[in-house]
Amino acid sequence: MSNASPRPLSIAAASPLRGTVTVPGDKSISHRSLMFAGLAVGESRIRGLLEGEDVLATAAAMRAMGADIVREDDGSWTVHGVGVGGLLQPQTALDMGNSGTSTRLLMGLVASHPITATFVGDASLSKRPMARVTEPLAMMGADFTTSPGGRLPLTMRGLCPAVPIAYTLPIASAQVKSAILLAGLNTPGITRVIEPVPTRDHSERMLRGFGADLIVEETPEGRVISITGEATLKPQSIDVPGDPSSAGFWMVAASIVPGSNITIRNVLMNPTRTGLVAALRLMGASIEAVDTRDVGGESVADLRVRHASLSGIEVPADLAPSMIDEYPILFVAAAFARGITVARGAHELRVKESDRIATMAAALTLAGVSVTEHEDGLTIEGRDGEPLAGTGGDRVASLLDHRIAMSMAVAGMHSREAVLIDDAAPIATSYPAFIDTATSLGAAPQWVAA
Ligand code: S3P
């Protein structure tokens, strides 16, 4: 998983995009489904699980710590959990591949169990900061031996019983919030996280659904989330809604390719995840939510997206937490808009699977777009609907970042000549069917020789 060979991809304009797509299950909810079911007592069933490499890394790690996880013939997954406090010592290092969410949330789980675990990952994950998680978990009693800079590979020893803390998040991060709450699950007393800026709330919603005693209060200091430890989780039946981050690629693709008209089915519309829809609508995109419904306590809708003339905007910085993974594809939308788009206040993009500010600046520049890089975002001069010229035979560097590869593949859908991407293999971390779905909509991605 950590050493896949590079797979170059070529893509240029084909026909307008038409048809209906179903996006894979939400990545955040898929990870949490396996972890929480793995801690419940009894059998849980999960339908619509994202079967991408990142989520499979979580499944493998939970198995290595004792959970019984099986993919059934009908594509659903059954999980028999070990019970909170029941995780076993893994016999080998846990390979997290490319997945920051697996790493940081599982570190939270291990922190309050009496076990030692080693976490390893690919070159991208091994560069990402882990101190944001190891610091609060160390306050709870876990002990860490890390690589220089607090990075992977690292070995941690959990403490049982761990010590409850009240922790104010210094950065807006659902992963850090979740790691502490998960450590709190097996910690006596009340563990509190104070979140000055709200981030995705899947851990809170799902833990409550699994029967944990978790309360959320809105206070002048922010959202205060309190979990009572030594919890017992009850098994659940979960339908994972479609991933809005994956849907984002099709929203932008249909918006920029003239003549397009598509429907994206079953998209999660949780308000902590819909920043891209809001930003694209500000740019003039035609995105209509139809048949909005409730699935397992989450709002879900089908999205009808038609080609539209987009205009450059100043992207409201307060949308950042609800579209943090969508900036690369928003930058592509901006490249085709009329006028200038300024996206600032998104410094966290520097520490994602790649430095997404620098990586997208380089990728769009190679494709002929005029881009100015800032410490916390980009200014992009839009082409007013004009197609790209292509990358002139040069290859965009995706730097082991799935969202860079998919964003630049979408850019290629409105390009006279080919946009070449040096490595699209990372797409399999979050969206294994992306290339097939692009083809089914009328785009023409092609694998090329390495
Ligand atoms: C995620 C939180 C976000 C996001 C990531 C998934 C989660 O990370 O970028 O893809 O599932 O909690 P941060 O917490 O680092 O912002």
From TrEMBL:
EC number per UniProt: 2.5.1.19
Residues the record lists as binding 3-phosphoshikimate: K27, S28, R32, S173, Q175, D325, K352
Domain Enolpyruvate transferase span(s) in chain numbering: 13-437
Entry keyword Nucleus: no
The entry's keywords: Amino-acid biosynthesis, Aromatic amino acid biosynthesis, Cytoplasm, Transferase
Active-site residues from the entry: D325
Catalytic activity: 3-phosphoshikimate + phosphoenolpyruvate = 5-O-(1-carboxyvinyl)-3-phosphoshikimate + phosphate
One Pfam family linked to the record: EPSP_synthase
UniProt: phosphoenolpyruvate binding residues: K27, G100, R128, Q175, R356, R403
Biological or metabolic pathway of the protein: Metabolic intermediate biosynthesis; chorismate biosynthesis; chorismate from D-erythrose 4-phosphate and phosphoenolpyruvate: step 6/7
GO molecular function: 3-phosphoshikimate 1-carboxyvinyltransferase activity
Cellular compartment(s): Cytoplasm
One Gene Ontology cellular component annotation held by this UniProt entry: cytoplasm
Taxonomy, superkingdom: Bacteria
UniProt entry tagged with the keyword Endoplasmic reticulum: no
InterPro entries hit by this protein: Enolpyruvate_Tfrase_dom, Enolpyruvate_Tfrase_sf, EPSP_synthase, EPSP_synthase_CS, RNA3'P_cycl/enolpyr_Trfase_a/b
GO biological process: amino acid biosynthetic process; aromatic amino acid family biosynthetic process; chorismate biosynthetic process
Record family assignment: Belongs to the EPSP synthase family.
Its biological purpose: Catalyzes the transfer of the enolpyruvyl moiety of phosphoenolpyruvate (PEP) to the 5-hydroxyl of shikimate-3-phosphate (S3P) to produce enolpyruvyl shikimate-3-phosphate and inorganic phosphate.
Assembly and oligomerization: Monomer.
PANTHER family: AROM/DEHYDROQUINATE SYNTHASE, PENTAFUNCTIONAL AROM POLYPEPTIDE
Protein name in the entry: 3-phosphoshikimate 1-carboxyvinyltransferase
Organism field: Sphingomonas jinjuensis
